[in-house]
Amino acid sequence: MITYLVAFLVALMVALVLTLVVRNRALAWGLLDQANSSRKVHVRPIPRLGGIGIVGGFFAPLCALFLVDSGVGHHFRYHTELVLGLFAGGVGIAALGLYDDLRGAGAKLKFSVQLLLALGLFALGFRIELIANPFGPPVPLGFLSLPFTVLWVVGVINALNLIDGLDGLAGGVAFFGVGTNFILALSRGDVLLCLVMAALAGAILGFLVFNFNPASIFMGDTGSMFLGFVLAAVSIKTSAKSGTAVAMLVPVMALGLPIMDTLLAMVRRTVLGRPMFSADREHIHHRMMSRMVLSHRAAVLVLYGLCALFTLTALGLHWANTAQSAMLLTGMAVVVAVLMRKLGYLDLRRASDMGEARRKNIRLRSLVKDVTDAVRAGNGVKDLWDAVRPLAEALDASRLELRLERQREGNRDGLTFETQRPAGSALPLEVGLEVKSGDETLGRFMIAWSDGRSEINRDEELALELVADAVGDRAAKLLALADADPQRVVALRR
């Protein structure tokens, strides 16, 4: 136990110091998560990259084992598959997260890297070979072991990433998962997995000092994807060494909250016709704040309690017999059903509204595709305006404006396009988005409604964000062409 405590304390101290340093550097360098979207809960820019503290804290005590001439160190170095999987895979997923936090990575790149890392784990022996059946013998997977393993790893990585929506939530959820795996490893005397979980627990707590509400730094994708990867890998090992009657059922229950939230998000977006990887404000933590009228901190604490209940159920399943497992699962199912009804996920009265929302979103996605394709094909700034102008009528807006400008030779040149429509007489709701290319702001895209609405729904906001991004990318290329060959493209002018 002394060894585990030392690993925990070393990880805690390294994560504390490293998170503090990263927070101060992020503030100085302007690496902030802007509160510029309706799905953002925070109201001021917050430094990101806090995941670096978690990664550094986790690896510090484990790397020290390579330098210490001890029985534990020899034991650690002897298990090359475990060490290589956690170290190489952990560094790879952290690098992907860091790139995403700094530059932004598309869904294809993220899933490609996650898939490669999952395949690497499988090759190193991290394999799901049985599916639990609490009402009978476990089901061997055979050749399906590979897709199930890949699905588990990629799924848990993205589940932790999706749950990272409130201060301290993702870290707390991961901590409960770590605690479950630590207890299971300790009960079997598995020194290595206990060390790994002790190090991760210390790293998480060191980061949570700065991340619990009100947070002064976010973990970003660096932290959330790293936590998901390590938990997915270790859960495979703990389940493989558990009794076959509960193989993989215990880790699924231990990570019940992020898994449940991810499944709900997939179903919700499919039913409503939204892009699968679009962000929204309908996650469990969002609904807990809006429907149960809980404060930011109160919602996190309630979800911590739910995670504790999942943890107790997972541990109970580990030692329960078949009948007891069935009772535990039934009881947990009742709790989940009550919560889902309380949060409005099981409200059948909204079925007809959801059908109409689906048709509307499908039309909206088709419109956005046509607009962004036209934007990318534009040969001048006037073409950009011609491409986005149909949005005014399609969205029943009363006013649409596109302003492009840039600093040049000490002066600020700009060009503004605007159209107005008779679409209501109420006080207008105006929504503006920056037109950017990388970190450079090239202008502003604004749309207004006068039909009495008080807010814009997430689907329309997402559509406008995609259009603004496309305009920013194309405008940057057109301006670069104008600088290289002024005869080809008309430059902006006052």
From TrEMBL:
It is found in: Cell membrane. One of its GO terms (biological process) is cell wall macromolecule biosynthetic process. InterPro entries: Glycosyl_transferase_4, PNAcMuramoyl-5peptid_Trfase_CS. Its cofactor is Mg(2+). The keyword Membrane applies. Its main location: membrane. One of its GO terms (cellular component) is plasma membrane. Keywords: Cell membrane, Magnesium, Membrane, Metal-binding, Transferase, Transmembrane, Transmembrane helix. The chain crosses the membrane at residues 52-70, 82-99, 111-130, 142-163, 169-186, 191-210, 245-267, 298-320, 326-344. It is a multi-pass membrane protein. Pfam families: Glycos_transf_4. The keyword Transmembrane helix applies. This is UDP-GlcNAc:undecaprenyl-phosphate GlcNAc-1-phosphate transferase. It comes from Archangium gephyra.
